Structures are given as C-alpha cells and as structure tokens.
Amino acid sequence: MKSDWERLFAASPSASIFQAFPWIDAWIAAYGQKSLFAISCFYGSRLIGVLPLYIAAWPKSTSAVSIKVLRLAGDSPDDAGALGNVVEEGWEEAFAFSAVDWLEGNRSGWDALELNDLSQERADTAFRDEVRRRGWAARLSTVSRRVLHVSSWKEDHVSDGGLRRAVNRLNSRKLDYQRAETNAQVSASLEHLFHLHTERWKAKGHKGAFAIAGRRTFYRLLAVSMSEAGTLDLWTLKLDQQVVAAEFGLIRGETRYSLLSGFDPKFGRYRVGSLLDRHIVESMRQRGLSQLDFLGGDEKYKESMGAISSDLVQFRCAPPRTIGAAWVRGSSVRTLQHLWAAVMRLA
C-alpha cells in the first residue's frame, strides 16, 4: 500500500503534506488502537483515490448505545491542516461517485461521517457535491487558518515597535539560526522543541501540546520519515550559544506548513520566537517557497506578519432517514456540539 499511496500522492498536486503516507503512518503508530476504515479506488491495478478514515463512537465506545462515526485519519490531536480525499488529478468526480456509492452499499459498520479540516480543492468539493446530489443529510461549517504569501513579505517587515526594540537590544548578542540536516541535529532539535514548547506554556499556566499521550512519539516518528523524504523543516535559534526557540515545519511543493513551536520564556522580552519566524520566512524566499501555512489558530502575531485568513471545511453527513442523519441534524444544537467536543478530548 505504501508504494501505491506514494505514487498517488505524487499524482495529486493539490494534496497537502498531511495526506502523505509518512503522516498517516506515524499517526497510526503513535496513537494506535483505532479501527481504520479506508476506501480505495483502482483503475485496473493503479490506485487513483483513497479516503483514509477511522471509526469513532459517539458519545463513546463504552456506551450501551452509540453512533459509529467515520472520521479522517490524522485529525486528532489537531496537528494537521487540510485532510481529506487523496485523488489522482482528473479522477475527482469519478472517485467521489465510487466512494459514496460504496458507502451507501456498505452501511453496517458506520452511521455518519465527520470530516474535519477538508480542503476547498476539487477532490473534496466533488465528494461534498456527490453526497448532496444523493440527498444525504449534511452540515457544513468552516474554521479559519492563516496563510502568508511570501511575495507580500518584506525583509524589514516589522509591524510593531516591540519587535524593533528587541532587535535593537540584540545588536551586541550572537544569534545563530540552524536548520536541522543530520539525524543528530534532528534528534537534538526535537528535544529542544519539546522542552521549549512545554516551558512556554507552563509559564502561562498550561501543560502544552506535548502533554498529550503519544504526541512526542508521533513527532519523533514523523521527523525521521519526513527528513528521509526531504520535507522536514525543523529550525532552532541560539542566543549566545543557548537554544532559545525552535519550530517544527514541513514542506510540500512551494508551501511550508508551520506546526508546533516553542521559546524560552526567560528570553521573551527579546521576542526570540518572532525573530525565528522572520528568519524562516526570509529563508523560504531564498528557497523559492511561496506560501507559509500557519494552520489553525488566529493568534495576533500571524496577522501582524501579514498572513491572511483562509478557511477549511468541517463536514458532517449521513444517508437520509437514518440514525446518522438525525445525529447530523442534531449536531447543529449547541449543547450537542459541546458534548461531542468533550468526548473527542477524552478519545
């Protein structure tokens, strides 16, 4: 399956890095204990589309009565950006028809679909259109992410006085930006990332992302496979020989995806996290990368860098006149939304 998936991914230029085989493979290995449910479509012996899913239960698997919900592999925890169908260019409508057709004919193992972080690309819009054409119950909402177009970035782009003052304070200090290249550098940079991210959030009274079970394992596995594929973009910043900031990124085509980052809160007055962000953007321009996807979150610093809002789609659907359809319609009730969010945090 790996070689077929990698060939398909290469033939799907609109697919994001989060739909690459190494991402899904690392996610399965790190978070395990999922009932996987993948829909694959072949033209002869050639894989032309795949929709990787897993089965989740609502309200939870230990309940006497629960709804079986198909969700996108890789969607939880919320590290990923655009997920969804991986389809060879030119086969989007044919795959959507075949996938929905198969789902309608094989309904015993599931009740509804919850597809979070779908893109606005043709492979995903074709699937949504096919579902609606068949009269399925459907509910769509959007979530915002910030995307920076590097062409709009200027080398002296500093939009706030605090960063300008931080730059001035560091004139006499030694700054060293390093992109991890070797296995040893990748391993050391990851450990710095884990520590700095945790320290940053601890200073704010929170545990941080790496408190979630399996997440460090996931990033270690991901770093190895993405480094081998040449798509890892892991950076650190040293201030007078001490690592004070780190950021984990991935590259697909001309897009860099910014995942998790961290900085030493003792050096917060120097804006070391912002300095590393700025250096990464400048390096992207030198490497011919055109777009920086900050993924989820609407933090102020993203807007101050010139990033604009771009939406991903949250899509729930189920065949008509089924318990799944009732769940989809009921999911518009705010109380049910809060309950589902709480269940997924415990999953």
Describe the structure.
- The protein has two domains: 2-144 and 311-346, Gcn5-related N-acetyltransferase (GNAT) (Aminopeptidase, 3-Layer(aba) Sandwich); 154-305, Aminopeptidase (3-Layer(aba) Sandwich), CATH 3.40.630.30.
- Strands 1, 2, 3, 4, 5, 6, 7, 8, 9, 10, 11 and 12 form a twelve-stranded mixed sheet that branches.
- 38% of the residues lie in helices and 29% in strands.
- The model has no long low-confidence stretch (mean pLDDT 88).
- The chain is of the alpha+beta class and 347 residues long.
- The chain has helices at 2-10, 21-31, 92-105, 122-133, 161-169, 183-202, 215-229, 272-287, 300-304, 323-330, 334-346, and strands at residues 35-43, 46-58, 67-72, 86-87, 112-118, 137-149, 175-179, 232-239, 242-252, 255-263, 291-296, 308-318.
- It is elongated.
- Please report which band the strand proportion falls in: under 5%, 5-15%, 15-25%, 25-35%, 35-45% or over 45%: 25-35%
Please count the beta strands (DSSP E, at least 2 residues each).
12
- The structure class reads alpha+beta
At the fold tier of CATH, the topology name of the largest domain is Aminopeptidase
Task: Count every helix, treating DSSP H or I runs of 4 or more residues as helices.
Answer: 11
Distance between the termini: 27 Å
Order of helices and strands: HHEEEEHEHEHEHHEEEHEHEHH
How would a textbook summarize the main sheet?
12 strands, mixed
Radius of gyration: 21 Å
CATH architecture identity of the largest domain: 3-Layer(aba) Sandwich
The CATH C-level class name of the largest domain: Alpha Beta
Shape: elongated
Uncertain spans, ≥5 residues at pLDDT below 50? none
Helix proportion range:
25-40%
The CATH superfamily of the largest domain is identified as: Gcn5-related N-acetyltransferase (GNAT)
